[in-house]
Amino acid sequence: MNTVKQRIAIVGAGGLGREVLMLLLQINQATPKWEIVGFYDDAPSAHPTICGYPYLGTVDHLNDTETPLCVAIAIGNCAAKTDVADRLLSPLLKFPVLVHPSVLCNPEQKNHFGEGTIICQNCILTNNVTLGRHVLLNLACTIGHDAVLGDFCSLMPQVAVSGCVRLGAGVYGGTNSTILQNKKVGDFTIIGAGAVVNEDLPSYCTAVGVPARIIKQTA
Predict the structure, then answer these.
(1) Is 145 a catalytic residue?
(2) What is the pLDDT of residues 166-196, one digit of tens each?
(3) Domain 6-96: assigned CATH number
(4) 47, 61, 100, 145: which one is catalytic?
(5) Is 76 known to sit in a ligand binding site?
(6) For a FRET experiment, which of 46, 57, 71, 115 has its CA 20 to 30 Å from that of 7?
């Protein structure tokens, strides 16, 4: 049976953009779904193609589309990702949830994913998990029961979020960091690689180490 593929563009022509390209290709191997049209990035590409797909223009050019187009925002920096999403205003642009085929997503888990969420290979989400808009879960993240991640969070590979954790908007979790059960992290806080969060953290700070300690406050 032939499946009509949906057109999709990737915003971000860097390393994460190439990883999202691989994610889309792996989804297509399981269920042919996406027609990948190319990349958009505010920094012009040094080459006309990225992994065989064309560089098509800047972020704002996406608003000029005359036909429906899906968009994957492949940007890890939370503030930059927020800015890009705020600029994409055309009603013809849609932001699908992208989930790697290795990730179990069954109705009985009662998980909820906001538009534009990207969940990469080998992630595990248990039950009653809520992910906001444009959340990125990179490779092999684990998200425990009843956790809530706000809009524009980005978790790098192997971040462990325990049960009942609350992450505000735009929280960045460095590779292999851990947030322990019931802890809260404020908006746009950065958790360093390998850090263990065993106390609540306020908004707009950077915390590193075991246990995580604040080294910088930005607001």
Answers:
(1) yes
(2) 999 999 999 999 999 999 999 999 999 999 9
(3) 3.40.50.20
(4) 145
(5) yes
(6) 46
